[in-house]
Design a protein that fits this description.
- By secondary structure, the protein is α/β, with parallel strands linked by helices.
- The chain contains six helices and five strands.
- The protein has a five-stranded mixed beta sheet with strand order 3-2-4-1-5.
- Helix 5 crosses helix 6.
- The longest helix is centred in the last third of the chain and has 18 residues.
- The radius of gyration is 16 Å and the shape is globular.
- It starts with a strand and ends with a strand.
Length: 174
């Protein structure tokens, strides 16, 4: 089965720890996603309910007549007190410590990383168990990192070593 993981494009508000803050895409973000999905098709689209993913997934659904399911468990990691802040506003040392060991150095009041992993993988494994066709998941860097960590057998503590660029679309055979 072909699995494609598409991260949303550039969002209004710039590079911040957005988490489950519901910001839309910029015009550039829309174009990034159009470019990333050009000449591709799938049998099923699954999307985060957050507007920066769902709006584009809805567009693909309407343009290509592909079934679409909104998966609430594919919402981004809740970054707690860091939501809406840039790395500079948070402090680069705190951000670096978080990325090196997100379990021991989480943002204050953030969603627990293991709970986040469980939420994402429960939905992912349920979908994979009943799906035999090609599918596109439109989601966030954190969700994609959890799924890729799972597919590559990496510990969740290393998820932030995986780079996921805006509007990147990666394909896997599973």
């Amino acid at each position: 089965m072909k699995l494609s993981l598409l991260r949303h494009g550039e969002s209004v508000g710039g590079r911040i720890y957005r988490g489950n803050q519901d910001d839309p895409l910029t015009e550039k973000g829309w174009q990034q996603m159009l470019d990333a999905t050009q000449h591709q098709s799938w049998d099923l689209i699954l999307s985060s309910p957050l507007i920066r993913c769902q709006a584009f997934a809805q567009h693909l659904h309407e343009q290509q007549k592909i079934p679409l399911e909104i998966i609430k468990h594919f919402s981004e990691l809740g970054f707690g007190d860091w939501q809406g802040l840039s790395s500079a506003a948070i402090g680069q040392n705190l951000v670096d410590n978080f990325k090196q060991d997100p379990v021991k150095n989480p943002p204050p009041n953030a969603e627990d990383l293991y709970d986040f992993q469980h939420r994402v993988l429960t939905a992912f494994n349920t979908i994979i168990a009943k799906q035999s066709q090609s599918m596109l998941i439109v989601a966030h860097a954190g969700v994609i990192r959890v799924i890729k960590s799972h597919l590559l057998n990496l510990p969740i503590e290393k998820m932030f070593t995986i780079e996921v660029l805006s509007a990147s679309c990666e394909n896997f055979e599973i």
